[in-house]
């Protein structure tokens, strides 16, 4: 028993050492884009912002107000996706924008709500650039000109920024930095930003792309059933020979609050099993991998002797590689020592996602159930 534990502890340490030396270094924060100041009077007539909005009355005015501060002549289309609140009315009250609010048509079979809303709006976009923006995303002044400059200067056709999630409550502080951390392990930014077509990633809250791309790929209909629509869109665009780029930003801020653990749980469980392609084998392999990588090191500390020493090395590397993410978001490094508990919660959310799927619910979000 002790010998087996020692071997597993050594395996965990080797895994973490391998992650340290991976060429694409998913734990680092090299891909970052922040808003540049002094762009408040920029001409943005070549950009149309498309915002799908379903029951977003609490945040839509803040989102649109931030867009009004980006520059002049910006076009904005808000698609009211069958909201039961005052989303459309609140949006129409915002001044300083060339704003159009359109009502979404009934959701056809086989479409997700967000993609259907985007499909209806993007078909009429006439500007060279389109920004796909979630209704709960606030952009700091200068972000739109900065995104446009990034595309032009580097010859990129599709740029996405992962929003800074709210980290006020205890559960948000515990779990939200790890959400970004795990996403970067699943989709290493360095690989996604390279010409290697095997990895493509995007964060759906903020995507700027050349409008022509949507016509080239056949519109959102080609990914209409995708629940992880952002990465599916990036993969389709990149697969067609275009360059994509994804990075972090503190200038793109999510207004969405997750005060209760159950809210974060549902957010993750919505697509976690989808990430594993609805495969029981991948689910079991993922669980075993998480056990060795995250849970075995603290357990090995209790064994004493050489096992404890190797486990301490693995635990230390685990915490050390999480620290850059915490530092980026201004969180205390002490949160890194909670990573085994954090990983256990995320794994439990993944199992919840699988159980819901086995019960006939592929995804559940904002009052819609996708079977």
Automatic annotation (TrEMBL):
Pfam families of this UniProt entry?
Glyco_tranf_2_3
Specify the domain of life of the species encoding this protein.
Bacteria
* Any one GO molecular-function label of the UniProt entry: transferase activity
Q: Which residues cross the membrane?
A: 276-296, 308-329, 335-358
Q: Which UniProt keywords apply?
A: Membrane, Transferase, Transmembrane, Transmembrane helix
Name assigned to this protein = Glycosyl transferase family 2
The organism encoding this protein is: Methylogaea oryzae
């Amino acid at each position: 028993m002790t010998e087996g534990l020692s071997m597993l502890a050594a395996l965990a340490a080797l895994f973490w050492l391998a992650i340290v030396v991976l060429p694409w270094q998913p734990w680092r924060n090299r891909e970052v884009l922040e808003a540049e100041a002094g762009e408040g009077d920029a001409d943005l007539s070549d950009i149309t912002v498309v915002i799908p909005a379903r029951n977003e009355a609490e945040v839509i005015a803040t989102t649109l107000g931030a867009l009004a501060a980006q520059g002049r002549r910006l076009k904005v289309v808000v698609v009211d996706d069958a909201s039961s609140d005052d989303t459309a009315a609140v949006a129409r009250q915002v001044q300083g924008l060339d704003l159009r609010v359109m009502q979404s048509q009934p959701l056809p079979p086989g479409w997700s709500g967000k993609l259907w809303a985007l499909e209806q709006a993007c078909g009429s976009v006439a500007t060279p650039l389109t920004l796909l923006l979630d209704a709960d995303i606030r952009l700091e002044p200068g972000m739109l000109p900065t995104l446009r400059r990034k595309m032009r200067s580097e010859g990129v056709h599709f740029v996405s920024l992962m929003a800074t999630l709210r980290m006020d409550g205890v559960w948000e502080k515990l779990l939200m930095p790890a959400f970004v951390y795990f996403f970067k392990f699943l989709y290493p930014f360095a690989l996604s930003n390279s010409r290697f077509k095997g990895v493509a990633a995007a964060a759906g809250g903020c995507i700027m792309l050349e409008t022509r791309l949507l016509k080239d790929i056949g519109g959102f209909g080609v990914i209409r059933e995708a629940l992880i629509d952002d990465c599916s869109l990036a993969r389709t665009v990149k697969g067609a020979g275009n360059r994509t780029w994804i990075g972090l930003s503190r200038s793109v801020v999510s207004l969405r609050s997750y005060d209760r653990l159950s809210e974060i749980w549902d957010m993750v469980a919505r697509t976690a099993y989808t990430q594993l392609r609805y495969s029981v084998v991948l689910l079991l392999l993922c669980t075993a991998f998480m056990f060795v990588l995250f849970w075995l090191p603290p357990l090995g500390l209790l064994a004493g002797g050489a096992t404890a020493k190797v486990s301490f090395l693995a635990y230390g590397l685990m915490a050390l590689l999480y620290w850059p993410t915490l530092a980026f978001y201004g969180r205390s490094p002490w949160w890194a020592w909670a990573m085994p508990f954090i990983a256990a919660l995320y794994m439990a959310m993944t199992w919840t996602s699988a159980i819901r799927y086995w019960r006939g619910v592929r995804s559940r979000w904002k009052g819609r159930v996708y079977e």
